[in-house]
Amino acid sequence: MNDNTEIRLDSGKTATAQCPVIISASRSTDIPAFYSEWFFNRLKKGYSAWTNPYNSSKIHISYERTKFIVFWSKNPKPLLGHIDTLDELGIGCYIQYTLNDYGEEGLEKGVPPLSQRIDTFRMLVDRLGKGRVIWRFDPLILTDRIDADLLLRKIEAVGDALNGYSEKLVFSFADIVSYRRVKSNLELNGIRYNDWTEEMMRGFARELSMLNKKWGYELATCGERVDLSEYGIQKNHCIDDRLIVRFGHRSKELMEYLGARIIQPSLFGTDVPENAIHLDGRGFAVITQDNRDRGQREVCGCMKSKDIGEYSTCPHLCEYCYANSSKECALQNWRLHRQNPDAETITGR
User: Fold this and answer.
1) Which of 67, 91, 167, 292 is spaced 20 to 30 A from 256 at the CA atom?
2) Which residues pair with 277 in a beta bridge?
3) Strand partners of residue 97
4) Closest CA to 219 of 142, 140, 278, 306
5) pLDDT tens digits for 154-167?
């Protein structure tokens, strides 16, 4: 996935660094919301460091070859001030924007009001273009205060507000029992949860599919084993080589890395090859290799990338968080970052 290169550190010493082409920023914390200044400062410096969560070793990441970034966020508004930097560096991006509505139930106390987050979605689409901001309502949580019907009403309200701005809706069913940290955090915070059964998932999918007739979103699940294709719901590829080709095809290096090539329909008469990717004004592209990341969960459809985030650093403090070991730990790491905001790592360690 990554070649290695020698880099010069802020200290003047040299180190070996991974050199990824595609960056994930990040599944582990909300970099756009809280660490945008840090990230873009490190991007300009050419490297950052990441702490391995399994053995606490420091791994350096060089941005020398980086051509595309997938951002993940519940409040990506700070990115608006940095998009020009990406353009200057020749780096493409799209945003996985988790836009839930759990305000009344207090599950996401640290995010801005829903109306502000919807406005941010629209501003990002106006700046980046439709398709590069992906709506996620994720996860779908059942509690003593939230049932499936209420979730559908919440999705409908957000879906109406985003109609014309989003091409896709990605969701997942909260699998609380299987995720020890999520289960522990919910119980610690006094949230009385319920798990989804497959029958409930299918019923929800059927109702969502009916609801989607007025929008026409592409519906997709993230990391789900259940097959909902009969309802027009596909399995998502959140770090998606097809989407990256669509928005990054002008980079020769990126296309070579992904095993993608541009084709013209005229070479095939009136037919376009199956699974061809439509490129605005440049014909079509096909991917000729398997880019899936075998290091992810079996049900994950993501392609190979390098995630640069760190766990237990997100001050959103969502009650169901899988990435924070505790709220106290996340806040302590946030304070450490603010004491040393230009450090190699997010925490400054």
Assistant:
1) 167
2) 285
3) 73, 135
4) 140
5) 999 999 999 999 99
Give the separation between CA 142 and CA 144, rounded to whole angstroms.
Answer: 7
Rounded Cα–Cα distance for residues 112 and 103 (Å)? 9
- Strands 142-143 and 133-140 turn out to be unpaired
Q: Which residues pair with 134 in a beta bridge?
A: 96
The pLDDT mean for the chain works out to 94
Structure tokens at 208: 């969502």
Give every CB contact of residue 115 below 8 A, 6+ residues apart in sequence.
none
* Residue 125, both tokens: 């689409």
Do 340 and 348 form a contact (C-beta atoms < 8 A)? yes
Residue type, 186: L
How does pLDDT run across 92-143, given as a tens digit for each residue? 999 999 999 999 999 999 999 999 999 999 999 999 999 999 999 999 999 9
CA distance 28 to 41: 19
193: number of Cβ within 10 Å: 18
Residues pairing with 221 in the sheet: 171, 235
Q: Say what the pTM is.
A: 0.96
| Backbone φ and ψ of 303, nearest 5° | -90, 175
CA distances from 127 to 32, 83, 132, 244 (A): 16, 9, 10, 18
The 3-class SS string of the chain reads CCEEEEEECCCCCEEEEEECCEEEECCCCCHHHHCHHHHHHHHHHCEEEEECCCCCCEEEEECCCCCEEEEEECCCHHHHHCHHHHHHHCCEEEEEEECCCCCCCCCCCCCCCHHHHHHHHHHHHHHHCCCCEEEEEEEECEECCCCHHHHHHHHHHHHHHHCCCCCEEEEEECCCCCCHHHHHHHHHCCCCEECCCHHHHHHHHHHHHHHHHHCCCEEEECCCCCCCHHHCEEECCCCCHHHHHHHHCCCHHHHHHHCEEEECHHHHCCCCCCCCEEECCCEEEEECCCCECCCCCCCCCCECCEECCCCCCCCCCCCCCCCCCCHHHHHHHHHHHHHCCCCCCCCCC
Domain ranges of the chain: 3-239+293-339, 241-292
